[in-house]
Description:
By secondary structure, the chain is mainly alpha-helical. The protein has 2 domains: 7-226, no CATH class; 245-340, no CATH class. It has helices spanning 7-10, 18-21, 37-51, 84-94, 102-121, 127-133, 166-178, 184-187, 192-208, 231-242, 251-257, 270-276, 278-289, 293-309, 318-340, and strands spanning 59-63, 74-78, 258-259, 313-314. The longest helix has 23 residues, at 318-340. The chain is globular, with a radius of gyration of 23 Å. Residues 1-9 and 340-346 have low confidence and may be disordered.
Amino acid sequence: MPARDSPAAQTPWVRESDDRLLDIRLCDLGVGIEGTALAARIASLHDELARAGLRFRPYIWLSTDWFTPDGHTGFAVPFYLAHPRLAHLERRQMYAVEGGNHDDCMKLLRHETAHALDNAYRLHWRKRWREHFGKASDPYRWSYVPDPESREHVLNIDHWYAQSHPVEDFAETFAVWLRPGERWRAQYAEWPAALKKLWFVDELMEEVGAKPARMRTRARPDAIGKLKMTLREYYEEKKAFYGDVDRSVYDRELLQLFSNDPAFARRRAAAAVLREWRRELRSRVANWTGQYPFVIDEVLQGMILRARELNLRLYYSERETVQDAAIVLTMHTMRHIRGTFREYHR
């Protein structure tokens, strides 16, 4: 029998089926950061801050997502990064694990650290901060249309996120600046507007680096130990957020890809073709767009259901149709980004 404080005792659900695991409350998971791969990555973050000459260290806790509450000098990371079994469940439910590998996790840790540091030193109150990034008081928008060709913003996490709001522009710029090796000097040499922001951050961190924070908080909103919802409820809510229910928007393209003419009634059903190629289509479009795989799969599921409702059949060759379907899926995925782009509630 494992000792009460051993990992096995704290995670008796580790060998449960997904279905049984989904009925466990978040507060009963008993997971923490210490001793995990996440802890090692946080240690790497601290090393980067030290090498950059920064005294500030954010405090970090487990919750349901990545977020830095307004006015706080710490940030939350998603609970599924605290245990491989939970990361596996996240991938099964959402087809991706945000921050699940070292590089992606470090990008997000640097980004959130920027928000916490901004709060700690009240950087966005400064006139020069506003001159470079804009007003932090600007309202967040539920949607925005990113410009993939823009050279006015750095690239760190996916979806051109620096374009979404002034505080995100600062956080992404800081995250790029903090990366070891000062690669930003060469990487953005031909991007004068973005480079100007990076040099400003460099100057700003030189000024505040050794100083104590102007404010410190310790609150941990929505800490996992206080959340009573089950994993099933968590994923139902998360999936509903990404859902796309108006399937008629796919009609024009589907009717160009397939046919509902009775003359083709003996050919393969369009829904079956899309379902068979689902993984390949999802992977291909994820590589093209950098979009969250669950969003792509939701769009593809809508296309499959609509193809079934319209009783569509294969018209062109299957390989040609799949190639064109990838283009259509990309188009509707980008439409989905423009219409329901996720607000990170930083």
